[in-house]
Each structure stands twice: as C-alpha cells, then as structure tokens.
Amino acid sequence: MVKTLSGSLWRGEKKLKFFFLCFVLFYWAGVTTEAFAKKQGPQPDVKVGERLFYGLIPTGEGSNSCVSCHAMYPADSMNWNPSAIEMAKVAAEMDLATFKEHLLTPTGAMREKVHVKYQLDDEQLFHLQGYLAELSDTGVKEQPISINKLLIFLLLGGLMTLALVDIFFTKKIPYKAVHVLIIIFGISFQLKIVAHEMIDLGRSQDYMPDQPIKFSHKVHAGDNKIDCLYCHSNADEGKSAGLPSAGLCMNCHQVVRNGSNSGQFEIAKVVDAYENNKDIEWVRIHNLPDHVFFSHAQHVNVGKRECQECHGEVENMHILKQENDLSMGWCLDCHKKTNVDFLDNDYYKTFEALHKDLAEGVRDSIQAADIGANDCMKCHH
Ligand code: HEC
Ligand code: HEC
Ligand code: HEC
Ligand code: HEC
Ligand code: HEC
Ligand code: HEC
C-alpha cells in the first residue's frame, strides 16, 4: 500500500519534471523568436500608444493628454483644435522624425503654444504614432447599448421587486435595512446606466453637421470686417447668394497661413483644396422647399434689406446657424410690416394708384404686401 503510493508519486514527479522542461524550452523559443521579430522590423504596441494618447501613461510633468484637445467625437465647431480623427490622419502620414518634431520641438505660433512639456522617448513616440495610424484607419467605434448593461439593469429591477415583495408580503428577511439597502443600491445604479445612455443619445440628437473646415463668420465678417458681399457676391444680383470658392479664400490665405484660434491646421485644408482643385463640400444650412420661389436680389438690391434682418447677427457667429424658421408666416409678416422705399425707386413707378394715394395723403407709407408681395403666385410659381 505505502509502496504503490510512493511509486505513483514518483511517476507524478517525473511527469512534472517533463512538463517543466517543455515549458522552459517553449519560453526560450518564444523569447528568441520575439527578439528575432524585433530585428525584422519592430511593431508598435498600439495599446501602449492608446494609453499615452489618453494620458494614462504620464507624457511629461505638466503636460496635457492628447485627447483633452484632440476630441474623439466629431467636435462642435467651437472646439478649434483638430479632432482626434483629423489629427490622426495627418499624423499617420508623417515620418517619425517629423512627428517627434511636432510634439517635442514644435515650430509655428499655435503649435508652440499647445504642444508643450512633452517628455516622450522614441519608443513611446513610435507606439503613439502606431495608435494614431490605427485610429485613422478604423475611425471612432460606435458604442451600441451593450447587452451587459441591459442585463444588469433587468437584474437590478428583479432584485428590487423581490425586496418590495418581501417587505409587504412574504416577510422572510427580518431586517428591514437589507431591503432598503437593496433598493437604494438598485435605483442609484439604474440611474447611472440611464444617465450614460441619455448622454450617448444626446450626442447624436444634437449632432450639428460639422463643416469640412472650421470657417468662422465672427473671425471674418466680425473681427476682420470683411463685407458679406465680398464672399456672397451673387446676393446682390442673383436669386441665390452663393458660396465662395477656394480660389476666393486664397486671395487672402495665400498670405495668411496662421489663424489665432486654429493655428495652421484648418487653413492648410483651404490651401490643399485650392492646390488640388478640390471642392470644399460645405454643408448647406438654409433650404426652402422647391415649390417656393425666393430671390436674394429682390430683397437685397430692390428691397434694400440687410442680410441680418433675415439671417441674424452672422458677424457674431463662430458656427453659422439658421436664425429664422423660413416659414410662410415669417415671409408674409415681414411683407405686411416692411415699408418699401416707394418714391425713390424706379422699380415701383408702375403702381400709379398707390402713388396717387401717397400724394393725396390717403396713406403715408406703402408696405411690401401692398405691391403684391403676398400674392400666392409671387412665391408659388
Ligand atoms: C492644448 C491642446 C493640445 C494638446 C494637449 C495636444 N494638441 Fe496636438 N494640436 C493642437 C492644435 C491646436 C493643433 C493645430 C496646430 C497648428 O496647426 O498650428 C495640433 C496639431 C497636431 C498635429 C498635426 C500637426 C500639423 O502639422 O498640423 C498632430 C500630429 C498632433 N497635434 C498630435 C498631438 C499629440 C500626439 C498629442 C498628445 C501627445 C497632442 N497633439 C496634444 C492642440 C493640442
Ligand atoms: C470670407 C468669406 C465670407 C464672408 C465675408 C461671409 N461669409 Fe457667409 N459663408 C461663407 C462660407 C464659406 C459659408 C459656408 C460655411 C458655413 O456655413 O459657415 C457661408 C455661409 C453663410 C450662410 C449659410 C449658407 C447656408 O448653407 O445656408 C449665410 C446665411 C451667410 N454665410 C451669411 C453671411 C452674412 C450675412 C455675411 C456678412 C455678415 C457673411 N455671410 C460673410 C463665407 C463668407
Ligand atoms: C479678405 C480676406 C480673407 C478671405 C477672403 C478669407 N479669409 Fe480666412 N482669414 C482671414 C483673416 C484676416 C484671418 C484671421 C487670421 C488670424 O487669426 O490672425 C482668417 C482666418 C481664417 C481661419 C482660421 C481662423 C482662426 O481664428 O483660427 C480659417 C479656417 C479661414 N480663415 C478660412 C477661410 C476660408 C475657408 C475662406 C474662404 C471661404 C476664407 N478664410 C477667406 C482673411 C480672409
Ligand atoms: C429677406 C430675407 C433675406 C435676406 C435679406 C437675405 N437672405 Fe440669405 N437667405 C434667405 C432665405 C429665405 C434663404 C434660403 C433660400 C433657399 O433655400 O432657396 C437664404 C439663403 C442664403 C444663403 C445660402 C444659400 C444661397 O442662397 O446660396 C446664403 C449664403 C445667404 N442667404 C446669404 C445672404 C447674404 C450675404 C445676405 C445679405 C447680402 C442675405 N443672405 C440676405 C433670406 C434672406
Ligand atoms: C425682412 C423682411 C422680409 C422677409 C423676411 C421676406 N421678405 Fe420678401 N420682400 C420684402 C420686401 C421689403 C419686399 C419688397 C421688395 C420689392 O419691391 O420687391 C419683398 C418682396 C418679395 C417678393 C417680390 C414681390 C414682387 O413685387 O414681385 C417676393 C416673391 C418675396 N418677397 C418673397 C419672399 C419669401 C418667399 C420670403 C420668405 C422665405 C420673404 N420674401 C421674406 C421683405 C421681406
Ligand atoms: C411671401 C411668399 C409666400 C406667399 C405670398 C405665399 N406663400 Fe405659401 N409658402 C411660402 C413658404 C416659404 C412656404 C414653405 C413653408 C415651410 O416649409 O414651412 C409655403 C408653403 C405653402 C404651403 C404648404 C406646402 C407644404 O409643403 O406644406 C401651401 C399649401 C401654401 N404655401 C399655399 C399658399 C397660398 C394658397 C398662398 C396665397 C394665399 C401662399 N401660399 C402665399 C411662401 C409664400
């Protein structure tokens, strides 16, 4: 009995030794092939790069994490910093030396201001750029409501129901504190889950189409006092106001290459569009239905209306927004209350009866509606 036991133990020890030997061999093989692979051409550790990007690994004392400026979500245009994706696309194209220079010894007014205090060694820079290259390939991943969250939510609901049932009916657990704890814990966790989902939902709901370039009317029409008609020259004589071409932007940006808010990044896109003959695909904001006729020239040139009467204080907007609802009521209202410059404009010569009324003092002003601006056919051809 004793003998057989020790015999089997001995056999077990042999097996152990054998396995141990195999393990050492495999480990050694693994290490050498890895070292070999490194010699073949090192691969960036994307996970390390990601942690550097999010500031989970220190990037230098007093430095900011990249993600604090280069946001992961399509930024509202008030965020002048390049979004993470846009930045990653640029970074992926750089060689390591340029990438290093942009972060550690940046040149250019804005870059010198924002990329400061980074202490990253070559290996970290390599991983970081590797992560950015991957990011520029895959983009930001959508996060659907996870099954886990849903299950936890339901489970908590179940637990709380049981607690309630026990308080009022089954009364199995004598200590009321247990029920109270379960319910408080359950509700606060459920609230947390709901809050998270709401924030995620809000993100798509408030989604304002980002313009391809962070163009600001405040910077141009406000701070630099550029006339609206310089860029929307068609508003004076045409039906639509029209948007400027990249060529027109270049009248100034041939020289102005550094914006005080966005640095070189946004203006570089204008130059790129111009030099490569690409259209800048502005996202259209105002849009009347097809069955309505509206002419800018009629209002700007003939009616002498200011752009701001219909578009609001555009010169104060970084992000352009539609100020009025462009409903039929809005058009008709203005036509009823807006005087036309009846006497001094040849355009109105044909309205003889109204001229007579004015001369005889029957009325002291003529509104747009009086000259037919509110006839259905004027707006609905
Ligand atoms: C304080 C905000 C801020 C932080 C933090 C920041 N950046 Fe930037 N980054 C900017 C701005 C602004 C620009 C545009 C500068 C310019 O074009 O003049 C920029 C531009 C870039 C560019 C493009 C360079 C180019 O030639 O246009 C890269 C690449 C970049 N950042 C990488 C990073 C990385 C990697 C980190 C983290 C280690 C980081 N940034 C941290 C604000 C920031
Ligand atoms: C330097 C050129 C420039 C100047 C000056 C300028 N704009 Fe613009 N405007 C643009 C560009 C580019 C867009 C398209 C991007 C955007 O919507 O912000 C635009 C868009 C608009 C739109 C929205 C178009 C749409 O999609 O519905 C309105 C309205 C507008 N501008 C009015 C004005 C008014 C009013 C002024 C003067 C206070 C003015 N703009 C001055 C370049 C300019
Ligand atoms: C009449 C001259 C002029 C024209 C035309 C013009 N810009 Fe500018 N733009 C400027 C000036 C001046 C600045 C401000 C530079 C600064 O911040 O010091 C500027 C700044 C910018 C900036 C950076 C804003 C910031 O504060 O960082 C962007 C982006 C820009 N322009 C895009 C455009 C686009 C797109 C067009 C054509 C639709 C255009 N510009 C047409 C004069 C012009
Ligand atoms: C009487 C109201 C009114 C006035 C005044 C007015 N607009 Fe508009 N604007 C509109 C309406 C309405 C639209 C939408 C037109 C459409 O969808 O067909 C529009 C559209 C635009 C657009 C984008 C589409 C296009 O027509 O190319 C621009 C840019 C624009 N306006 C600029 C201006 C500028 C610049 C001025 C001043 C010179 C001005 N507007 C004066 C009502 C007005
Ligand atoms: C800010 C005030 C204002 C708003 C808002 C406005 N209009 Fe006008 N509109 C005028 C004035 C003033 C005239 C007279 C100019 C003239 O003699 O044609 C006019 C004239 C017209 C005419 C020409 C009538 C004629 O005599 O042939 C048409 C068509 C018209 N508007 C359509 C519209 C439409 C469509 C809208 C809404 C999308 C609109 N307007 C919004 C002020 C406005
Ligand atoms: C000053 C310009 C103007 C005049 C005059 C005008 N409309 Fe309109 N109408 C509009 C505009 C702008 C819209 C689009 C409103 C919107 O999309 O909310 C519209 C929309 C409509 C619609 C709704 C269509 C839809 O898609 O829901 C009808 C119906 C209509 N108009 C009938 C009339 C009739 C009938 C008259 C004459 C009594 C008239 N309109 C006079 C500007 C005008």
Automatic annotation (TrEMBL):
InterPro entries: Cyt_c-like_dom, Cyt_c-like_dom_sf, Multihaem_cyt_sf. The keyword Transmembrane helix applies. GO terms for molecular function: electron transfer activity; heme binding; metal ion binding. The keyword Ribosomal protein does not apply. Residues 44-136 form the Cytochrome c domain. It comes from the Bacteria. Keywords: Heme, Iron, Membrane, Metal-binding, Transmembrane, Transmembrane helix. PROSITE patterns: CYTC. The chain crosses the membrane at residues 18-37, 150-169, 175-195. PANTHER family: CYTOCHROME C7-LIKE DOMAIN-CONTAINING PROTEIN, LIPOPROTEIN CYTOCHROME C. This is Cytochrome c3 family protein. It comes from Carboxylicivirga sediminis.
